[in-house]
C-alpha cells in the first residue's frame, strides 16, 4: 500500500495556525475555510469556570436555558433551572396522537393521530449552517434524517391563475429560466447590451444561455426533446413498445409572470432554506429531550417566576411553586433569564431603565400551524410528491409533506397550513383568532382546492397558535432594524448579576440556532466577568 | 380575489356534504356552507392589509386572537389583558395608539389598517364587552396618532 501523504484535517490545520500565529490568525483562517464567518461560533465555549463555588440560576428550560445549564455545569458552576411548565423544551416541541393542550381562552387542542405522523408546532427543519445545533446533535446523539425542503414536483398554486390548477415547482423554475434566457439572448443579438458586455463575453453568454435555458439553435425557448430531458415529459420515455415519448409544453412567459408563481418560487431562495436540510428522526423534541437527559436533575418544573431581584451580591428570584402551592425564593450569584420578553415585561425585574425599555420594546410575532392526518399518502400515490413544500396564495400559505415514512400504507400527517408575521401577510392573525375546530375547517376548505383528495381521506386535525400560548404570548421576537439599533445591545448586555438569553437575544430570531448562540455567548461573557 | 376563492370553497363544501349524505362514507365533516363562508370571511381579501371595514369584523380577525371573543383576555405565565372593564380604555387616543404602534409584546397593526379601520375597531372595543364610552375617535384623529413616516 502506498503511503498517503499527510494531509491535516481542517481542525488540525487550524490548531497548527493557532499555535504558530495566535488566535487572531486562526480566526482569520477559519473565516477563509468558511468556518467562522457567520457568527464567530466555536464548538466549545471554552469556559474557565469559577474560582470558587458559584451558583447560577437559569429561568426557562427551553433550548437556551438547558444549553446554558449543560455548559456551565461542565465548567464547574452549580446550576438550577426554574421552569414554568411541567415539561422541558420550550417552543421546541412535537405533538403526537393522544396529546392534549389547553390554549389561552380555554379551548382544548386535541391530537388524535392514529399513525406515527407527528407535528412540530415550532422549529421543524435545520439548515446545515446552523452549526451549533448540528454540533449538539452530534455530541448528544440525536439522529437526523434529511428534510426535503425543495421538491420540484411539489406545487406552486395561485387561486387566480391557470384555473386554480397547481403547477409543479420544477416547471415554473425551468420555464422562467428559459424565458429569461431567451430574452437576454435577444438583447445580446440586438446589440442592446454592447456597452456592458464585450464581444468575447457576449459569445460565452450566448453559448451558456443555450444550455442554461435549454434554448433551441435560434435561441428560442420551445418544447423539444432536449427540453423534455430537463423539464419532463407529457409522455415519459418507456420500455419495449410503449407509447413514444413526448416532451412537456412550457408555460408562456406572460401568464407565468401574471400568476405570481415566480414570486412564490423565491420562498426557496433564502439561505435559511438552502438544501439539504435535516430534521431529528421522530420529531423536533428529540433535540430538547437530548439536552434534558443531561440536565433534567437540575430542572424544577411548575415554577412560575414573579420577581427577579438583584444587588451587587447576587440575585433573588421569587416564584410560585405549583407543586406545593407556595411562594418560594431562590438565590444565586448569577441569573440567566430565557423567559420570552413578552412574558418578562409583565414581571417585576430589577434592571437598568434602558434594559427595561428594551424588554418592553420587542413585539412577539404571530404564527400558527395546522396539521391534518389522512388515511393514505395521496400526495405520494396520486401526485408523486415525495416530501417538500407546496406554496399557495390561499391563506393556508404552505403545505409541507412528510420527509419520512415514504410509500408506507396507512395514515400520514401533512403540515397543512403555516405562516408567520415575518412573511408580511396578515392571514396568520385571522387563523389565530379561530377556535381549534375552526382552524381545521378552514385548512380543509382551502387545502381541498389544491388536493381534492382531502375530502375522502381526512381523518383528524390539530393546530397551534403561538399567541394563545401563555408562556410565550407569541412566537418569537419580531425585531426591526430600528428596534435593533435602539435596544439590541442593551438587551444582550450583562446587567449587574442578570443576563438574558434566547432567540430574542440573537440575530437569528425564531431559530434554535439563535437561541443556542445567544446562550453560548451569554455564558461566555458571564464566565469572563466571573474571572475578571 | 378572495371572493372567488370563497365561492369555490363553499361550492365544494356543499358538494361534499351531499356526497356524504348519499354515500354515508366517512369523510371530512365541514361546517354547513353558510357557517364556513362566515368563517372564511375572517381572512382579508389581501395579504398586505386588512380589508374588513366593520369594527366587529376587524376585532374578530385581529384582537380576538389574544383578547378572546368576549374581550376577557386570559392569563397564565403571562397575560393578554382584558378589554372588558379595563380603565385604560378610558382614553380613545391610548387605545388607538396601541393598535397603531403595538404595546410590549403586542404587534402593531398600523401598517395594515387605514385610519378608518383603526377608528372602527377602537370604537367597537370601547362600546362592547360592557364598555360604553360615549366619545368615538375619528379617522382624522387616528391619522394624527400615526408615527411619523407612516401613511
TrEMBL record, chain A:
<dbReference type="InterPro" id="IPR006311">
    <property type="entry name" value="TAT_signal"/>
</dbReference>
<dbReference type="InterPro" id="IPR050281">
    <property type="entry name" value="Flavin_monoamine_oxidase"/>
</dbReference>
<dbReference type="InterPro" id="IPR002937">
    <property type="entry name" value="Amino_oxidase"/>
</dbReference>
<dbReference type="InterPro" id="IPR036188">
    <property type="entry name" value="FAD/NAD-bd_sf"/>
</dbReference>
<comment type="similarity">
    <text>Belongs to the tryptophan 2-monooxygenase family.</text>
</comment>
<keyword id="KW-0073">Auxin biosynthesis</keyword>
<feature type="domain" description="Amine oxidase">
    <location>
        <begin position="63"/>
        <end position="522"/>
    </location>
</feature>
<protein>
    <recommendedName>
        <fullName>Tryptophan 2-monooxygenase</fullName>
        <ecNumber>1.13.12.3</ecNumber>
    </recommendedName>
</protein>
<dbReference type="Pfam" id="PF01593">
    <property type="entry name" value="Amino_oxidase"/>
</dbReference>
<comment type="pathway">
    <text>Plant hormone metabolism; auxin biosynthesis.</text>
</comment>
